[in-house]
Amino acid sequence: MTYSLHTYPREEELYACQRGCRLFSICHFVRDGDDLNQTKSECESTCREAYAQPDEQYACNMGCHNQLPFAEQRQDQLEAMMPRIHLLYPLTLVRGFWDDVMSQAQGFITSTWTFYLQADDGKVVVFQVFC
Prior knowledge:
Elements: H1 11-31, H2 36-50, H3 54-81, H4 89-109, E1 112-118, E2 124-130
Antiparallel strand pairs: 1-2
Helix pairs in contact: 1-2, 1-3, 2-3
Protein name: Transmembrane protein 59
Family: Belongs to the TMEM59 family.
Subcellular location: Cell membrane; Golgi apparatus membrane; Late endosome membrane; Lysosome membrane
């Protein structure tokens, strides 16, 4: 967020405000910012180092301060996008694994026996036994 030139009487202050906005973004990126207050403090510290004039420092600090709501909103959006695991998901995963193992074991253990017998009259009798 930047301000038009009429907000500050001098062009240097406008650039200082814009630089404060950029500094906040850089500090937030470098810290992988979970703590936005710490990011804001670092940004303000950088403004003090960068500008000797109080008006320019103030404009730079305003740039830092005005980025805070946007960073909070972005952080909320990122948290909303994070996938959440349902409490029972690990249980269903284990159950599915168990079903697969039991199915394979049953297929491995199950066997079929087939007996062919021929009767005295020449007919063939088939016996199948499933174990």
